[in-house]
C-alpha cells in the first residue's frame, strides 16, 4: 500500500521551517556565544550558506526519486545497501536525538511558568504527537501549519520590536552599543568554525522534507521551492534575531544564558503590559519546540518504513494502516524518542547530531555525482542542482572541514555509529538484499557489471510521477497514425512502420529500424501482455511521433522475461520516436502509454474500434476529451455554418477532429463547420466538464 500524496507547498514549507525553530533559536545562541562571542551572528549565516549544497542535492534527488526514507533511500540507491544501511540507521538516530531534544524544550520552557516535571512533560507530548501522526499525515501537517504561522508572527514581532528599540530613541536603555561587539571573535578563527558546525543542527530540519517526499503533491515544484523558501525565511530570522540578542544583552550575559530570547524579550515590548512580552516569547518557544517535535516524529518515522520495505529492517515496519500512515514505524520512533528523553542530556546531543549529519551530507553530495555519472536513463529529476559538480564538491569539502572542527567526541560518535550500522548490514541485511546502487552503473562504463533492476525501479517511480505540464503527450496522441492490419511478421511490421516514420521525419530508415529492435535495461518495465512498446530517438526532430498498430490475430514477437526468451502474440504496438536531446521526456511518455495499456479491458476495448479517430479518443479518454454532433435544435447548433476561428471555446481546449461523411480530418481556423459534423475536443478536465454540461447533459 502506498502513502497518500496529501502535502502541498505550504506543508513542505511548514514541515521544513517548523523543524528548525526550536533549539536553534531559543537555546543555542547562548551556548554558541561561549565559543565565538558576537560573531555567533556570522556563524549562523555561514551555517545557512554551507547547508546549501546539501539542500540542492537533496532537492534534485527528491524530485527524481520521491520516496520515503530520505537520506537512507538516496544512499542505498546510489552507493548500495551497505551505505544505505549506515546512512539510514545513522540519520534515524540523529533525527531521534534532535526530536527528543525539541520535546525536552517544551517541558523546559513550560516550567518557567508552571511547576511541572520537564522530562515527564516531554514524554506526554511525544505520545500525543505519535497519536496525531498515526491518524493521518494531513492532520499532522495541518497542526504543523498552525504552529509555524503562529511562530513566524511572534518571531517577526520580536525582531521588528528589537530593531525599533535598537535604532530609535524611544527606549534610552537600549541602543546599538559597539562595546557589545568588541572583541567580535572571542575564540578566533577556530572558534568561529567550531561554532558554525555547532549551530549547523539549527538548519537540519531543512532536509527532513526528503523523508516525506513520497507524500508530497507535485514534488518537482513543491520540494525545491518549499526548501528554498524555508532556508531564506529561517536564515533571515536566525541572523536578525541573534543580532537583536547580542545587541541587547551583550556577549557576557548572552554566553551564560540558556533562554536568551526570553531574557531579551523582557527589555522589549514596552508598549505591552508588564511581562506580556515574556509570555509571548515563552508561548512562541512552546510553538517552536512543538512544531519541531511533531515534524521530527513525522519525518523520522519514515526511515524504518523505507528500510522495512527494503528488508533492512523487519517488514512489519513497512505496513501502512487504513489511515494511510506507517503505524509500526511511528510506534517504534516514538518509543525510541521517549527512551532518549529519559536517559540523555542536551548539549552533547546537539554536537553528536550535527557531526553525523555532516557525514551524511558528504555522502548525499557524492550521491548526486554518482547518479549523474551512472547515466541511468530513468533518473529524471524535475530540479537540477546548480553549479554541478562544483556545488557538490564544495559541499563535501566544507562538511569534512566542519566535522574535523567539531572535536574528537563527535567524530568518535560518528565512527561508532558507522561501525554498528556496518555490523548490522553484515549480519542481518547482506544475506537478504541482492541489489546494488547506481555506482555500479558508473562502474559499468569502466567495464564492470551493473544492476539492471535499478533502471526498472526508477522507471516505476517515473510512472508514478507522471507527465510534466509541458510534455506534448496529448498532442502526440492527436497527431498519431493508426494502422489496422490483418497479419504480418514482426520484422516486416517494424520495417514498414520505420519506413513510414522515416519518410515523415526525413531520417534514415535503417537506423530507425535497428533502434526499434534494440533492447534496453528498462525493457522489463515496459512488458504488458499482448502489448509492445517500441521506441527510438532521433536528433533535432520537431515533435514526438507515435504510430499505433492494431492486429486482432496477433503478431509473434520474441519477449525476454527474467532472462528467459519466449515468443508471444502481440495485438497492439506503439512506436514512439522522440528528440534525442530530450530522452527523459520519452520515458515519461512511455510510462503514460503503459498507464493507458493497463486500463481494465484495454485489449478488448481498443480492438473493437473501427476508426482511427475512435482509437485516438479512447487513448485520450481521461476526462480530457469530448465528442458531440452539431445538430439543429440542440445547444450545439450555435456552431453550424461558422468558421472554427469564430467559435468561442475555453482557452485550454482544442478542436482536434471533425468527423464528416464517414471521414475524419484535423480542422483549421478557416474550416466552416456544417450540420451533422462531429467535433472532438481535447483539453483540461475542468473546461471539458463545462463543455460536457453545456452540450451533452443539456441535450
TrEMBL record:
PROSITE patterns: PTS_EIIA_TYPE_2, RCK_C. It holds the Pfam family AA_permease_2. It is a multi-pass membrane protein. Keywords: Cell membrane, Membrane, Transmembrane, Transmembrane helix. The chain crosses the membrane at residues 12-35, 41-65, 86-110, 116-135, 147-167, 187-206, 227-250, 278-299, 320-344, 350-371, 383-402, 408-428. Residues 613-697 form the RCK C-terminal domain. SUPFAM superfamilies: Phoshotransferase/anion transport protein, TrkA C-terminal domain-like. It comes from the Bacteria. Residues 471-622 form the PTS EIIA type-2 domain. It is found in: Cell membrane. InterPro entries: AA/rel_permease1, APC_superfamily, PTrfase/Anion_transptr, PTS_EIIA_type-2_dom, RCK_C, RCK_C_sf. This is Amino acid permease. It comes from Hwangdonia seohaensis.
